[in-house]
Amino acid sequence: MFNPRPDPSSSSATVERAAADWVARRDRVLTPVEAAKFATWRAADPRQTDELALLEATWRALDAADEAPEIMQIAHEFDAEQASPQSVALGAQCLRALASPPRWR
Fold this sequence. Notes:
mainly alpha; globular; disordered N terminus
């Protein structure tokens, strides 16, 4: 049964790692089984949808980074298939810091 309330035991770091994992998986295209698991995961907690949107926006920013040669150099050296969810999350945090004004949580 669907529980619309977030699981309080899920830390923000856990949510971020899972979202980063899904961004990396979706970049290589999901199987039907993975797509069903993704839909279930996404519906389980609104924080997951929010974090996923943030990481996807960062991922798209990489595609639009043609004007920044130093970022493109890093992106070309990055092998997404061998990247861990943690490295995707770390990369997303770095890009967020470079591409957006500071925000306080």
